[in-house]
């Protein structure tokens, strides 16, 4: 029982010491932080948005149908 109390007390002390640490401030970034000619871009994948076919009353999307009909085909 004494070991359990010591462990709990130690964890409480550790948690409280972490709560008093100074927050880390991230450096600000802007366009001049990147090299000349750097181009920003974005991308997404349909499975990130479409996913979970047959869940919650959903049916397969066009992409689900296409990817099952042509499993080896890549559109890159």
Automatic annotation (TrEMBL):
Family to which the UniProt record says this protein belongs: Belongs to the glycosyl hydrolase 1 family.
GO MF terms held by the record: hydrolase activity, hydrolyzing O-glycosyl compounds
Gene3D superfamilies: Glycosidases (3.20.20.80)
Annotated keywords: Hydrolase, Signal
One Pfam family hit: Glyco_hydro_1
InterPro entries named in the record: GH (IPR017853), GH_1_N_CS (IPR033132), Glyco_hydro_1 (IPR001360)
SUPFAM superfamilies to which the protein is assigned, alphabetical: (Trans)glycosidases
Signal peptide residue numbers: 1-26
Gene Ontology biological process terms, A to Z: carbohydrate metabolic process
PROSITE patterns (alphabetical): GLYCOSYL_HYDROL_F1_2 (PS00653)
Protein name: Beta-glucosidase 10
């Amino acid at each position: 029982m004494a070991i359990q109390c010591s462990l709990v007390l130690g964890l409480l002390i550790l948690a409280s010491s972490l709560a008093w640490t100074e927050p880390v401030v991230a450096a600000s970034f802007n366009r001049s932080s990147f090299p000349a000619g750097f181009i920003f871009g974005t991308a997404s994948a349909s499975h990130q948005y479409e996913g979970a076919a047959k869940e919650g009353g959903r049916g397969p999307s066009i992409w689900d149908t296409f990817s099952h009909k042509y499993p080896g085909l890549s559109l890159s």
